[in-house]
């Protein structure tokens, strides 16, 4: 019995590691990489959880924005689904009033609909973005800090 127990203790770690061999495993919990400040204000991290390939025609990206951070106006050639998992953020489509989205909210962003989204002025936000593979983001207009501040003031009332 002691030999069997010792054998289990020695070989169990190898069997646990071997269970992932041949699989592509990513983690939702990874923070990801700090995004370059190209089309946003503030601090953001991106974690490419799943990338489109010959079998799956969509991407899943986890994005985390620190408070007081925002993306520029943009649109996608495919529908994009935003699943808010932590914090609060602002969202606005061109020609509509901005709203606050919070953890638990799910939003379908229409194909070719121009919008921006962000963290709120006082809250970090983390969301999952699900969108079509091979469809780049089209950046349409810079969202200024002044405009963001106006939205923050308006939605804090």
Describe this structure as you would to a colleague.
With 157 residues, the protein is an alpha+beta fold. It has one domain (25-155): Jelly Rolls (Sandwich), CATH 2.60.120. It is built from 2 helices and 12 strands; from the N terminus they run αββββββββββββα. Strands 1, 3, 4, 7, 8, 9, 10 and 11 form an 8-stranded antiparallel beta sheet that branches. Strands 2-5 form a two-stranded antiparallel sheet. β7 (80-93) and β8 form a beta hairpin. The longest helix has 17 residues, at 2-18. The protein is globular. Mean pLDDT is 87; it is low at 4-12.
Provide the fold topology.
Elements: H1 2-18, E1 33-34, E2 40-41, E3 44-50, E4 58-65, E5 70-71, E6 73-76, E7 80-93, E8 99-102, E9 106-109, E10 115-117, E11 125-132, E12 137-141, H2 145-155
Antiparallel strand pairs: 1-3, 2-5, 3-4, 4-11, 6-12, 7-8, 7-9, 7-10, 7-11
Give a short account of the largest sheet. Answer: 8 strands, antiparallel
Q: Look at the structure and name the CATH superfamily.
A: Jelly Rolls
CATH class: Mainly Beta
Structural class: alpha+beta
Oligomer: single chain
What separation lies between the terminal Cα atoms?
A: 70 Å
Summarize the structure.
The chain has helices spanning 2-18, 145-155, and strands spanning 33-34, 40-41, 44-50, 58-65, 70-71, 73-76, 80-93, 99-102, 106-109, 115-117, 125-132, 137-141. The chain has 157 residues and is of the alpha+beta class.
């Amino acid at each position: 019995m002691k030999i069997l127990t010792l054998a289990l203790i020695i070989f169990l770690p190898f069997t646990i590691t071997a269970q992932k061999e041949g699989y592509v495993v990513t983690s939702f919990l990874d923070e990801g990489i700090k995004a370059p400040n190209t089309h946003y204000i503030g601090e953001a991290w991106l974690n490419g959880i799943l990338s489109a390939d010959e079998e799956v025609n969509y991407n899943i990206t986890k994005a985390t924005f620190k408070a007081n951070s925002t993306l520029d106006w943009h649109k996608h050639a495919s529908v994009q689904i935003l699943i808010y998992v932590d914090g609060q953020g602002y969202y606005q489509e061109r020609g509509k009033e901005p709203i606050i989205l919070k953890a638990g909210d799910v939003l379908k962003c229409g194909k070719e609909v121009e919008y921006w989204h962000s963290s709120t002025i006082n809250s970090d936000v983390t969301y999952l973005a699900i969108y079509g593979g091979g469809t780049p983001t089209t950046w349409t207009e810079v969202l200024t800090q002044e405009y963001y501040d106006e939205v923050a003031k308006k939605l804090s009332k």
